Amino acid sequence: MTGTVKIAIRELYKIFGIDPENALKHVLDGVGKVDLLEQHGHVLGLQDINIDMHEGEITVIMGLSGSGKSTLIRHLNRLIEPTSGQVKVDGNNVLTYDEHQLRNLRRESMSMVFQKFALLPHRTVAENAGTTLQVRGFSQKEYLAEAEKWLGVVGLSGFENHYPHQLSGGMQQRVGIARALTSNSPIMLMDEAFSALDPLIRTDMQDLLLQLQDDLHKTIVFITHDLDEALKLADRLVILKDGYIVQQDEPQHILLNPCDPYIEDFVSDINRARVLKVRSVMSPLVGDTPPADAHGEVDYNDTLEDVITRSGGDTSHSYIVTRDGAHVGVLEMTNLVRALVPRVASQAGARKL
């Protein structure tokens, strides 16, 4: 991860209706989503969105239906035009692009993976995967060779000459991912790309995406309504409600520090042991010498479930935390157990005492 901001969204508003510019004035004066619709006949899609998406990271945008997440991702490549605001890619405001610049952005800088696969039924798997390069003027030999390479990466070697109807849903979505990879674009937009798949296939696709990301370090914007999926994939998580951002941060921080009752409700039923990592509950190492009475070492990115299994549930244990072979902290099992209790539940228990 470089820390470089690849996509910057600033003060982004989207209002649907016949006179969005005038409706925006009401929103800026404090009119909310419900009143804007009832009093002015306009729908507030996005409200004052500000996000930095870093190069080489997966930014997950999540929320319930109607929260604005799919509307937001379509602003990045201007499939939807905003009412107000900025969308910058590599420091350039794409909202000022002319038709030629916008075409190049969509062809070369951003690829998109859709929920419904969007494969052309009359074209072979390899031809579908090579579509983006064909559109850019590559010869058939060139784009098929590149497509076949990426089909192999996503586990579809041998299916190049099949047609979409001959593949399962999970295999079709692998073609969609191969098509996005074949474009060699640095940014991938994924709009609920796995939500139409069966649970086991969906888990396989999530694992595949993470494996690819370990090697390719794309800048990925991933839309989902599933919190488990979001927590598994996200380097940075952005949670929307009614078109505005409720909270955005590293997923571990959101899980441990929900800022709003809405977020507390979202995270209350999560299996925290499977999601939280050692780095979120460890104490930094004081000095250069780790404690001599520790019961061994655990990795910075191990899950709490991994540590519980290793300890046999013994809350008296402590472990030295390592990162890339270096000692960086200490994990006390008592702190691990506290982290497993949702804050809202903990506060409720305290009120009863």
Description:
The structure is a single chain. With 353 residues, the chain is an alpha/beta fold. 41% of the residues lie in helices and 23% in strands. It is built from 17 helices and 14 strands. It has a six-stranded mixed β-sheet, with helices on both faces. Helix 7 (140-153) crosses helix 8. The radius of gyration is 23 Å and the shape is globular.
Blueprint of the fold:
Blueprint: E1 5-16, H1 20-28, H2 33-40, E2 43-54, E3 58-62, H3 69-76, E4 84-89, E5 92-93, H4 99-109, E6 110-113, H5 125-129, H6 131-135, H7 140-153, H8 169-182, E7 187-191, H9 199-216, E8 219-224, H10 227-233, E9 236-241, E10 244-249, H11 251-256, H12 261-267, H13 272-275, H14 278-281, E11 283-284, E12 297-299, H15 304-311, E13 318-323, E14 326-332, H16 333-339, H17 343-352
Parallel strand pairs: 3-8, 3-9, 6-7, 7-8, 12-13
Antiparallel strand pairs: 1-2, 1-4, 4-5, 9-10, 11-14, 13-14
> Low-confidence parts lasting 5 or more residues at pLDDT below 50?
345-353
Secondary structure: helix percent: 40-55%
Distance between the termini: 45 Å
Radius of gyration, whole Å: 23 Å
Describe the global form: globular
What are the key terms here?
single chain, six-stranded mixed beta sheet, 353 residues, alpha/beta, disordered C terminus
Summarize the structure.
The protein has 17 helices and 14 strands.
